């Protein structure tokens, strides 16, 4: 295997996390200038739907024949949870906090998903095994990190001019409220993964399902925006920054990044892909400090470290559990234990 073949998945995921960090930074900038959260979401999903629909028609030509009423209903709720509500909660939280801080709650999504799956009986914890103890410890570490992020802001770690500090204090005066919205966004997004797993079994068309979800999410966001705020002037984008932000978020954030992540999941698995999520917070911190001149607080650092440690402990436990399951003896029809047989994978 060549060097490029070995490391291209790693390079691809680092690119994805950097691109998503840029999306969050741009959102922070336009939100601070007064752009409506649901308007951003509507434009973002509309652009993603326009981008992905031709790809779906070209790569998945028979997707319409398998599109049943049940699948459309599931996609509607998938768009509501993973699109409209997630974006709305996260963008409100981002408005009152910072890019780095909001990314810490993104790192909690795998943990929240695991807890929900545990409550629904789709996951289990065997405390007697090493992998089970790792999953339990990782979950507790992430929950502890979330509490620190929400309840403890801490001292500022960067000395900044008085004029910049004044602006930052104004944007973070509702830090706990922003934290609660970010936590709600991570919970809703986690529930989307469980719904999407069921959709994937009934409707295994990634491009078309994402295009339909984006289309439904755009409609839902537009309706919700008109219900909450009837001011039509909010729909007119003012300046190059707002236009370029929604185009970049739609094309790169919801289009290209999704395609790359889907490819990485197919090539390396979900555990490998999830393991790169903390990189988005590292890139966001660099952008926060160097470009946006945001303040970094002690509570954000301590909570983020605990969340990242917990995430990797959980991922290690999941990986170890999958490895043990693969190597464990299986039982034949006569009730006799048989050892697993290792063979070369077939190529189709």
UniProtKB/TrEMBL annotation:
One of its GO terms (cellular component) is membrane. Keywords: Membrane, Transmembrane, Transmembrane helix. The keyword ATP-binding does not apply. Signal peptide: none annotated. The keyword Transmembrane helix applies. It comes from the Eukaryota. Residues 9-149, 178-315 form the EamA domain. It is a multi-pass membrane protein. The chain crosses the membrane at residues 41-59, 71-92, 104-122, 134-155, 175-195, 207-227, 247-265, 272-292, 298-317. GO terms for molecular function: transmembrane transporter activity. Residues 326-348 are annotated as: Disordered. It is found in: Membrane. InterPro entries: EamA_dom, EmrE-like, WAT1-related. This is WAT1-related protein. Belongs to the drug/metabolite transporter (DMT) superfamily. Plant drug/metabolite exporter (P-DME) (TC 2.A.7.4) family.
């Amino acid at each position: 295997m060549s060097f490029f073949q070995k490391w291209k998945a790693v390079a691809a995921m680092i690119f994805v996390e950097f691109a998503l960090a840029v999306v969050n930074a741009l959102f922070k900038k336009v939100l601070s200038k007064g752009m409506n959260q649901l308007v951003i979401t509507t434009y973002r999903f509309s652009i993603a739907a326009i981008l992905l629909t031709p790809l779906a028609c070209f790569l998945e030509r028979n997707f319409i024949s398998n599109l049943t009423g049940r699948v459309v209903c599931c996609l509607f709720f998938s768009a509501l949870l993973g699109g409209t509500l997630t974006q709305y909660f996260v963008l409100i939280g981002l408005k009152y906090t910072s890019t780095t801080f909001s990314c810490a709650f993104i790192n909690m999504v795998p943990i929240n998903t695991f807890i929900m799956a545990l409550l629904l009986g789709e996951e289990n914890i065997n405390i007697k095994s090493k992998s089970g103890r790792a999953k339990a410890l990782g979950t507790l570490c992430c929950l502890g990190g979330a509490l620190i992020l929400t309840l403890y802001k801490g001292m500022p770690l960067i000395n900044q001019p008085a004029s910049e500090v004044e602006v930052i204090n104004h944007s973070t005066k509702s830090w706990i409220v922003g934290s609660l919205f970010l936590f709600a966004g991570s919970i809703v997004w986690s529930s989307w993964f469980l719904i999407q797993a069921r959709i994937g079994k009934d409707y295994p068309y990634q491009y078309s399902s994402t295009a339909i979800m984006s289309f439904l999410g755009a409609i839902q966001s537009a309706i919700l925006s008109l219900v909450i705020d009837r001011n039509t002037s909010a729909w007119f984008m003012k300046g190059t920054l707002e236009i370029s932000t929604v185009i970049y978020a739609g094309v790169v954030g919801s289009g290209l990044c999704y395609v790359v992540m889907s490819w990485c999941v197919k090539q390396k698995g979900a555990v490998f892909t999830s393991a790169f999520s903390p990189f988005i917070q590292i890139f966001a911190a660099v952008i926060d400090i160097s470009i946006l001149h945001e303040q970094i607080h002690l509570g954000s650092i301590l909570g983020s470290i605990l969340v990242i440690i917990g995430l990797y402990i959980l991922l290690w436990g999941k990986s170890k559990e999958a490895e043990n399951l693969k190597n464990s003896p299986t039982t034949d029809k006569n009730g006799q234990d048989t050892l697993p047989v290792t063979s070369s994978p077939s190529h189709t």
